[in-house]
Amino acid sequence: MRRIGRTTVADEISTAMARAGYEVRETDPFTPDRVFAEIQTGTSALAMRIRGLWAAMRERVIDAFPEPRPIDSTDDYLKRVDSVYDHDAYHSLSIEGYRVTPELVARVRTGAWDPDRNPGDHETRAALAARGYWLAFQSVKKGIASILADAASAAWVRAPRHSG
What we know:
Elements: H1 7-19, H2 45-64, H3 74-83, H4 85-95, H5 102-110, H6 119-123, H7 125-148, H8 153-158
């Protein structure tokens, strides 16, 4: 805490630990060139940690990626995005612990998922998760199309989203 300029908090921690009978020896586990994100009131510690990690590793991450391939047409690119949906949704939902089948994922994708008419769809958590994944996928795809149409990608990513 002292390293990031929060000396009052560091003093409070040291004092509380000493009162509890612990011998306090402050050490800084970070190297002197370690980059920390600027502290922002109301920002979670996790968000600040991610920003700090990104600041420290940004160049290495960028260097690890291959040069982007040119996109011939937005429609062709979005078709490629659609082509991976079933595979991506099945594996992603399975990793998260949902018991899904390729058939369920396909029913959701094609619109055959109907919780009003099919009691199994209404009662199955996996079906609801698959539906949520489908809605998220469509939102991301819409964002990709917007960015490919020359929208400012950073502004699009920061804009609030509402499921519909």
